[in-house]
């Protein structure tokens, strides 16, 4: 397992991933960062945790419905999406509570 240092909304996260999953994880980070920035810039949602939850919900919804015309449907089943959202929430909660994500937190 490799450790990848990610940055979302100015916060750093250390994530464990297999070397062959590194590129896909970076793409996922880019999608999440773009969505979170868009939500923050809209001014309708305040607070990193609220922005993260809204981004996760919007990404999951777009994945399930194929409503994002700019990106292909991710092809994940609902259970997989729910597990990934829970993992993201745990990392965000840990970061907010301790000032940083747990070392080697694995989202994927």
From TrEMBL:
UniProt keyword annotations, A-Z: Cell cycle, Cell division, Cytoplasm, Septation
Claim: Ribonucleoprotein is one of the keywords in the record: no
Cross-referenced InterPro entries: Cell_div_ZapA-like, Cell_div_ZapA-like_sf, Cell_div_ZapA_N
The protein's name in its UniProt record: Cell division protein ZapA
Gene3D superfamilies in the record: 1.20.5.50, Cell division protein ZapA protomer, N-terminal domain (3.30.160.880)
A single BP term in Gene Ontology: cell division
Entry function: Activator of cell division through the inhibition of FtsZ GTPase activity, therefore promoting FtsZ assembly into bundles of protofilaments necessary for the formation of the division Z ring. It is recruited early at mid-cell but it is not essential for cell division.
Organism: Limnobacter humi
Subunit text: Homodimer. Interacts with FtsZ.
Subcellular location: Cytoplasm
Coiled-coil intervals: none
Keyword flag Cytoplasm: yes
Main subcellular location of this protein, as a coarse class: cytoplasm
